[in-house]
Design goal:
Mean pLDDT: 86
Oligomer: single chain
CATH superfamily of the largest domain: ADP-ribosylation/Crystallin J1
Number of domains: 2
CATH topology of the largest domain: ADP-ribosylglycohydrolase fold
Shape: elongated
């Protein structure tokens, strides 16, 4: 459910004039939009809502006049009903807020009455089922109420129209006049759209810009065209359309809106939309559910692991487009069949078993037990499948060293590589940030009880946790970096560069890469893909950043680099998969993983869910 919130005009008086008179002169009125009533139904929030509604459920919170109060009010309610916009939670006002719009040959003027002094009542009811909040077109006393609620419920927010003064929010979408956005570089906006009237618009994300051309039309009235553009763009983008396609659709609908008087669509508006709109692929038709995001994280982990397996630590890796067997010259995986997972995913499964056996919170002693059992299954000290820190710590535990002491020298990526399971568990159990960190620490203690390894693990787990909970990318990175800084205060202190600083730097570098080859070069030669946590975790975030709207792309760049490709691809796949959902993981990859490893990822996710919400299976 998309919620549009606003408080502005709901009736427009539209006048076209031949000239703008000087003082004491009388100008000439060429045309009135509504000669008999003068006032027409309008309002930016309502116009945005009607444009977004064809793509999915939309709710409007905006003071509305009673439909019995006037003919324009009745038509406003009719337009909302016709579009399918839910407006039953809107405060009822005694009369409309009027705006006077003067269309002169070289400019437009607008005067509006003050907004209604409306209070937000039944906030829980307004927010029920809401997955995204859009503020439009102005800010008022009610804004902070919805912003606070969005923060509390972790609901992504966007704005249309007036640029917010506050710079503390992370905005998923910001759509405004390009000149307003240009003077607000302080805002953190994941996707910025600067509108330029007849010159179209510019979509900017990750430092790259895409131009959207305006669609030529014989203009009757431009009132509401920008709102139609914004609503269509938001609806299409949130429904899964690529941003370029969302911009094209938005330009077409905005152009159609200019062909008639008024801000709201005519009765045949939906017919136009259905003829012009191309549906997105089935995997992106709706916002992923929590379970779909959890599936995406674990499928991303397993598929990244198997995709990166053949190239792991090869001096001259081959560029691969699909999962392949471990080559004969592989130092660790020679003879592995295509699609075979490695210790990254196997240890994540061990953590999951420890979770099931723990009483509420993850018990580090049970983690040690499950890791020892895995260690024995794969051959113990003689196995090439065990990383250096894990092999050392588990060997010491077998010799009688305490679990708390054994991992105090583990600085490699053996803990971050398996930690996605902790992020999934925490998200499915609605853990707080502090509870997440406690379980991250418990997962690290047996083999990687050091500040750097816990910091890297906390970053990866927090990213998975945030992605499954539906946070936008910038907020996800912020949370991961905060977790890394907190994690660095735990365990045995070991010098290492700041994980959070290197994550931000790596993501900035990824944003400057124009294609996969350039990204792979940056991973291999600049960021680093070694076993050290301070290299591999930032590399995983860079790969996830590069392909976060396409987990397969994130896995591809990590798996085709040089270094610890299976581990970095597993972490990148888990992060991007949590952000995107399981639909971003190719079906043929999932089928091969299941066949080769006997890995039932849906059952794995179900085992991590609270017992009362797990699907009931028939015997």
């Amino acid at each position: 459910m998309l919620l549009i919130v606003g408080n502005a005009a709901t009736a427009d008086g539209l006048v076209r004039v031949a000239d703008v008179p000087d003082s004491h002169d009388v100008g000439t009125v060429e045309e009135l939009a509504a000669p008999t009533t003068f006032w027409m139904p309008g309002g930016s929030a309502a116009a945005i809502a009607t444009a977004a509604a064809p793509f999915g459920p939309v709710r409007l919170w905006h003071p509305l006049p009673s439909p019995q109060s006037s003919e324009p009010a009745r038509r406003l309610h009719d337009a909302l009903d016709r579009a399918g916009v839910h407006h039953e939670m809107c405060p009822v006002s005694a009369d409309a807020v009027h705006a006077l719009v003067i269309d002169a040959p070289d400019r437009r003027f607008c005067w509006s009455a003050p907004p209604i002094d409306a209070e937000v009542t039944d906030l829980d009811g307004v927010l029920a089922g809401v997955e995204h909040i859009v503020f439009a077109p102005r800010w008022g006393p009610w804004s902070e109420c919805f912003l606070d609620a969005a923060r509390h419920h972790r609901i992504p927010v966007s704005f249309v129209g007036e640029v917010p003064a506050a710079d503390g929010e992370c905005w998923a979408f910001g759509i405004a006049d390009a000149r307003q956005l240009a003077v607000a570089p302080h805002l953190r906006i994941e996707v910025g759209v600067g509108t330029r009237g007849t010159d179209g618009a510019t979509i900017t994300t990750d430092g790259a810009s895409t131009a959207v051309l305006a669609v030529p039309v014989t203009v009757v009235d431009t009132t509401g065209a920008g709102d139609a553009f914004a609503g269509t763009f938001l609806g299409a983008a949130l429904a899964g359309h690529p941003l370029r396609d969302a911009g094209r659709l938005a330009a077409e609908v905005a152009s159609a809106r200019c062909s008639h008087w008024g801000a709201l669509p005519p009765p045949d508006h939906h017919g136009f939309r259905k003829r012009e709109m191309t549906a997105p692929t089935a995997s992106t038709t709706s916002t992923p559910t929590t379970r779909e995001r959890a599936l995406g994280a674990l499928w991303g982990q397993a598929c990244g692991d198997a995709f990166g397996m053949p190239n792991s630590f090869l001096r001259l890796p081959v560029w691969r487009t699909t999962m392949e067997p471990g080559p004969d010259n592989s130092p660790y995986h020679a003879g592995y069949p295509a699609g075979r997972i490695t210790d990254d995913t196997e240890q994540a499964q061990s953590l999951s078993v420890a979770f099931e056996q723990s009483d509420g919170r993850l018990n580090h002693l049970l983690v040690a037990v499950e890791l020892e059992a895995w260690f024995d299954r794969v051959g113990g000290d003689q196995s090439l499948a065990v990383g250096p820190s894990t092999k050392l710590a588990l060997g010491q535990i077998k010799q009688g060293v305490s679990v708390e002491e054994a991992g105090r020298r583990g600085v490699t990526n053996g803990a971050p590589m398996r930690i996605a399971a902790v992020g999934v568990w925490a998200a499915l159990h609605d853990y707080t940030f502090d509870q997440l960190l406690q379980d991250v620490h418990a997962a690290c203690i047996p083999t990687h009880n050091t500040s750097v390894a816990i910091a890297g693990s906390a970053a990866v787990a927090a990213a998975v946790w945030s992605g499954i909970r539906g946070l936008e990318w910038n907020a996800t990175v912020d949370t991961a970096c905060r977790a890394a800084d907190r994690g660095a205060e735990l365990g045995s202190w070991i010098y290492a560069p700041s994980i959070s600083a290197r994550i931000r730097w790596a993501c900035e570098l990824a944003g400057s890469c124009s294609d996969e080859v350039e990204m792979v070069t940056a991973l291999s030669d600049v960021i680093g893909m070694g076993e050290a946590t301070a290299e591999s975790v930032p590399a995983a975030f860079a790969a996830a950043f590069f392909g976060r709207r396409d987990p397969a792309r994130a896995i591809s760049v990590a798996g085709n680099a040089r270094g610890d490709t299976d581990t970095v691809a597993a972490m990148a796949g888990a992060i991007a998969g949590a952000f995107h959902g399981s639909g971003g993981i190719p079906e043929d990859w999932r089928t091969l993983i299941e066949k080769v490893n006997g890995l039932d990822v849906p059952a794995w996710v179900d085992s991590l869910m609270p017992s009362e919400t797990r699907p009931v299976t028939s015997l």
